[in-house]
C-alpha cells in the first residue's frame, strides 16, 4: 500500500503523542501510589504517636539509679534537681547560644525542618550510611522524653510525629525549658541548672555570654569536651558557638571579640552549688559510665545501673570505717566488739590505744578542712576474687565522707616498699642471667638487674608515671616516685591473680528508662595478661607480702614521706581488701604526725583490713546459703 510522506509524518506525530499520554498516565499512577504510601505512613505513625502520652513531658524528670547485685536501689547517680528550668531564669544570650548551636529556626518551625530533613536524607544516601539526622530541639526532646533510640527510618518517622504532637500541645518556652532541664552536660550534670552550679558555681541567670556559649558547645559530646575533662576542647566548642552567634547577629563583633578572649574560670569543688551529695559507690559508678561508649547521650533519659555491689558489705564497710576514725580521733570512745577480738593486731592496738596522745591539731569528725588542722582520710576497696567474679567491686569508699566530692583513689602516693614485688618480677622475666636473682631487698635486686631493665618493666606497667632518672637510681628501687592509688591497687590485684589485669569494675548492666539493655559487662573474654604468669606467681608470696599456709596473703606497709599506710588482705578465689589510710592537711597534702600516732594509725589500718576481709567472706558465705 502506498503512503505519502505527509501521511507518514502525520502518523508518526500521533504515535509520539500516544507514548506521551502513556507516560503521563504512568506518572499520574505513580503519583497516586506515592501519595497513597505517604498517606498510609502518615496514618500509621499518627496512630503510633497517639499511643504516647504527651503529659510525660511535664512529669518529674527522670533520674539515674544505682542498684546492687540483688536489684535493690542503693544510690542515685545524679545531683539532679527535679524542678525544671523556668523561662524566667534564662538570660537572652543563653537562649541564643543554644539556638545558635542546636536549632536557630526553633521559634519559626513547627517541630520539624523538612528542608533540613531532605538535605540530610540526600547526604546519607550519597554516603550510604546514617550520618546526619537533622534533628530540631523538639525532636531531640522527643527522644529524651519517650526513650526513642537507634538510627533507623522507623525511629525518625515516629520522632517527627511525636515532635509535632508536642508542638501542638506546648508552647516554645516550655519545650525549650524542658530540653535544657534534661540534657547531659558531663561530670554527672543533668540539666542546665546543675551544669551552671558544677562548672561555674553560679545560678543560670548569673551566666555570662562566654559561659553560656561554653555550656551550649559541650552538649554534643559532654563526656569528652567538658572543661574538667579537656579545657582546650571546651574552649574550642565555646568559640565555635560564639562564631555562630555572631553569624546570626545574636551578638555584635565587639561582644564576640570580648567573649572569645575571656578565660574559663571553673568553680572549686567547695564552691559548687549542689542539691544532693553523691555516695561513693555512685561516684565510682559515674566514673565508669563516663568511659563507656554511647552512655553519655542516654543519661538525660534516666538510667538504671545494676552493679556488682553487695549492699550488706557496703553497709558494713562504711560502719567499720566510721568506728575506726572515731577510735583514732577519740581515746575516750569505747572499743567495739571487732576491736576487742583475739588476734595480734587487735592486741597490739588495744595496748597503745589509750596511751597514745592525739596530735593537738588533729581535726575530729566530718567537718570541712580547717586551715592549720590535719585530718584522717581512708579509702577502701573490697573486690571479689572468686572464679568468674574476679575484679567485681563489692564495696567501695573513696574517702571518709562523700560530702567533699573527692575521690582519694585518684590521688598519688609514694609507693615505697609496695613497689618491690614488681622489681622482683623484673628479675623473673626471660633473658635474665643467673645473677638476676630475687634478693630479699628490692634495692639489691634492682641494682643487679640495672636501671634500664627495672625502669622498662615499671614503665610498661605504669604508663605515664614519671620515674626517677638514671642519676637518681636508688629512688627507683625505693619506690620514691608518685603513683595514683587506684593504679597501685590494680597492679597488686593483678599480681595476686596470676598477672591478669582484671578491671576493678562496679557496673554490671545499664538499662534505659524504657528497660532497654544498653550495656552489659563482658564476663567471657579473658582479661589481658599484663604480668607473665610464671613471674607473677613466683613473687606473689614474697616480701613485703606475708603468707602462711592456709591463711590469706597480707601486705601492711608504711609509705614514705608521710604518704600514709597501705594494707591489703586477699586469698585465692575469695576476697581482696585494699585499704589506704593517711593524714592530710587542709590543702589535701600529706601531713607529719608524731611517731606514736603513726604507730597507732598503722595498727588500726592493719586491723581494719583484716576485719573487713573476714567479715566480707562471712557475709558472702551466708548469702550463698540463701535460696
Can you walk me through this structure?
The structure is a single chain. This protein has 627 residues and is of the alpha+beta class. It has a domain at 80-275: Biosynthetic peptidoglycan transglycosylase-like (Penicillin binding protein transpeptidase fold). Helix content is 45%, strand content 10%. The chain has 21 helices and 12 strands. It has helices at residues 5-50, 92-102, 114-127, 137-146, 153-169, 172-182, 192-200, 209-218, 222-225, 231-247, 253-261, 280-291, 311-329, 344-353, 420-427, 442-449, 451-461, 473-477, 485-495, 533-539, 595-625; strands at residues 65-67, 73-76, 303-307, 374-384, 393-397, 412-413, 483-484, 507-512, 517-520, 553-558, 565-570, 575-585. The strands form 3 sheets. The protein has a 5-stranded mixed sheet, covered by helices on one side. It has a 5-stranded antiparallel sheet with strand order 5-4-12-11-10, with helices on both faces. A hairpin with a 4-residue loop joins strand 8 (507-512) and strand 9 (517-520). Helix 15 (420-427) runs parallel beside helix 16. The longest helix is centred in the first third of the chain and has 46 residues, at 5-50.
Structural descriptors:
disordered N terminus; 627 residues; 5-stranded antiparallel beta sheet; Penicillin binding protein transpeptidase fold; alpha+beta; 12 strands; elongated
Amino acid at each position: 500500500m502506498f503512503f505519502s510522506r505527509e501521511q507518514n509524518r502525520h502518523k508518526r506525530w500521533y504515535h509520539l503523542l500516544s507514548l506521551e499520554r502513556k507516560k503521563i498516565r504512568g506518572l499520574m499512577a505513580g503519583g497516586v501510589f506515592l501519595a497513597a504510601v505517604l498517606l498510609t505512613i502518615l496514618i500509621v505513625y499518627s496512630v503510633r504517636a497517639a499511643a504516647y502520652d504527651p503529659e510525660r513531658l511535664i512529669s518529674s524528670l527522670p533520674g539515674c539509679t544505682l542498684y546492687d547485685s540483688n536489684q535493690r536501689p542503693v544510690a542515685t547517680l545524679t545531683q539532679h534537681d527535679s524542678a525544671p528550668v523556668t523561662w524566667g531564669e534564662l538570660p537572652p544570650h543563653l537562649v541564643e547560644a543554644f539556638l545558635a548551636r542546636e536549632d536557630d529556626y526553633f521559634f519559626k518551625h513547627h517541630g520539624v525542618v523538612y528542608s533540613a530533613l531532605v538535605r540530610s536524607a540526600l547526604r546519607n544516601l550519597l554516603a550510604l550510611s546514617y550520618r546526619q539526622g537533622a534533628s530540631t530541639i523538639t525532636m531531640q526532646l522527643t527522644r529524651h522524653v519517650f526513650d526513642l533510640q537507634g538510627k533507623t527510618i522507623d525511629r525518625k518517622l515516629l520522632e517527627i510525629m511525636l515532635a509535632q504532637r508536642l508542638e501542638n500541645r506546648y508552647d516554645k518556652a516550655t519545650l525549650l525549658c524542658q530540653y535544657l532541664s534534661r540534657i547531659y552536660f558531663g561530670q554527672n550534670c543533668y540539666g542546665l541548672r546543675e551544669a551552671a552550679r558544677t562548672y561555674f558555681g553560679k545560678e543560670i541567670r548569673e551566666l555570662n555570654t562566654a559561659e553560656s556559649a561554653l555550656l551550649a558547645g559541650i552538649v554534643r559530646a559532654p563526656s569528652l569536651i567538658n572543661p574538667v575533662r579537656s579545657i582546650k576542647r571546651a574552649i574550642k566548642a565555646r568559640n565555635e558557638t560564639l562564631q555562630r552567634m555572631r553569624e546570626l547577629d545574636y551578638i555584635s563583633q565587639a561582644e564576640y571579640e570580648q567573649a572569645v578572649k575571656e578565660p574559663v574560670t571553673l568553680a572549686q569543688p567547695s564552691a559548687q552549688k549542689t542539691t544532693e551529695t553523691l555516695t561513693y559507690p555512685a561516684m565510682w559508678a559515674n566514673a565508669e559510665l563516663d568511659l563507656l561508649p554511647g552512655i553519655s547521650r542516654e543519661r538525660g533519659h534516666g538510667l538504671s545501673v545494676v552493679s556488682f555491689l553487695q549492699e550488706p558489705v557496703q553497709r558494713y564497710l562504711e560502719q567499720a570505717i566510721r568506728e575506726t576514725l572515731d577510735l583514732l580521733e577519740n581515746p575516750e570512745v569505747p572499743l567495739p566488739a571487732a576491736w576487742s577480738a583475739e588476734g595480734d593486731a587487735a592486741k597490739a592496738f588495744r595496748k597503745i590505744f589509750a596511751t597514745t596522745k592525739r596530735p593537738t591539731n588533729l581535726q575530729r569528725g566530718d567537718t570541712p578542712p580547717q586551715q592549720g588542722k590535719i585530718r584522717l582520710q581512708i579509702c577502701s576497696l573490697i573486690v571479689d576474687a572468686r572464679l568468674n567474679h574476679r575484679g567485681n567491686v563489692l564495696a567501695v569508699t573513696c574517702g571518709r565522707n562523700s560530702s567533699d566530692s573527692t575521690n582519694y583513689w585518684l590521688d598519688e602516693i609514694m609507693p615505697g616498699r609496695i613497689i618491690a614485688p614488681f622489681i622482683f618480677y623484673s628479675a623473673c622475666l626471660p633473658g635474665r642471667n643467673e645473677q638476676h636473682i630475687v634478693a630479699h631487698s628490692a634495692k639489691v635486686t634492682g641494682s643487679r638487674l640495672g636501671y634500664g631493665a627495672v625502669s622498662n618493666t615499671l614503665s610498661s606497667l605504669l604508663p605515664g608515671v614519671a620515674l626517677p632518672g638514671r642519676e637518681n637510681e636508688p629512688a627507683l628501687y625505693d619506690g620514691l616516685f608518685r603513683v595514683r592509688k587506684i593504679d597501685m591497687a590494680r597492679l597488686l590485684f593483678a599480681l595476686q591473680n596470676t598477672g591478669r589485669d582484671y578491671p576493678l569494675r562496679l557496673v554490671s548492666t545499664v538499662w534505659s528508662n524504657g528497660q532497654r539493655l544498653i550495656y552489659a559487662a563482658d564476663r567471657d573474654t579473658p582479661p589481658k595478661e599484663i604480668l607473665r604468669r610464671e613471674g607473677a606467681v613466683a613473687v606473689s608470696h614474697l616480701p613485703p607480702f606475708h603468707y602462711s599456709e592456709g591463711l590469706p596473703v597480707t601486705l601492711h606497709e608504711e609509705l614514705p614521706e608521710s604518704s600514709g599506710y597501705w594494707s591489703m588482705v586477699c586469698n585465692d578465689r575469695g576476697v581482696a581488701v585494699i585499704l589506704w589510710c593517711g593524714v592530710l592537711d587542709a590543702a589535701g597534702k600529706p601531713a607529719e604526725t608524731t611517731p606514736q600516732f603513726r604507730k597507732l594509725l598503722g595498727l588500726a589500718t592493719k586491723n581494719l583490713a583484716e576485719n573487713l576481709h573476714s567479715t566480707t567472706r562471712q557475709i558472702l558465705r551466708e548469702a550463698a546459703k540463701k535460696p
